[in-house]
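Consider the following input, taken from an annotated entry for Membrane protein (Lentilactobacillus fungorum).
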Amino acid sequence: MKMQGLNHANIWRFKLTTATMTLIPAAVGINYVAKALAEGLKLPVWLGSLGTFLASMLAGPVAGAISGFINNVIYGLTLSPISTVYAITSIGIGVAVGVLHAKGWFSSASRVFVSALIIAIVSAVISTPLNVIFWGGQTGIAWGDSLFALLVANHAPVWLASFIDEFVLDILDKVCVAYLAFFIYRQLPQRMVRFFGDDQQ
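Applying the prediction step yields:
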């Protein structure tokens, strides 16, 4: 069954209603717990955008962007200061997910994969300059940074090595998160999906 939320014409509308005031903190909490779990278990992915995906899918790109931004700031203030730097990346992810979802790119498992690749590119393009400026091009994920070191050792430009490091990690992370969000969204009651969509109209 195809689930409907925001229609294409309304994706950029945003109202700070009771629904969104409930959704955004919930999305921030999901992001926070997922990212903390991934870091605690030393997983090769971040998982910190799951709540952002869900907020964007339910209430549009603005709600998702706000959720991602707030989470990065809070996470940076409590567990990992470097997280705050990537708040702008989370905004980009929220916008990309919201637009792709509104255009029907989360309607099937095969389309979700394509969406994840697009979102990974968006994330990598935004994050790479931050990685270079603040961390010399590395991401903080061991196997990705091993690839970065190998590329630099073979005389690849730092910016290119950093982008490849970030992109390969983002592909794995965003594919995992996109499918998690896709399956969670499809299990939500239709009434809930329509509630958030109608609330922004």
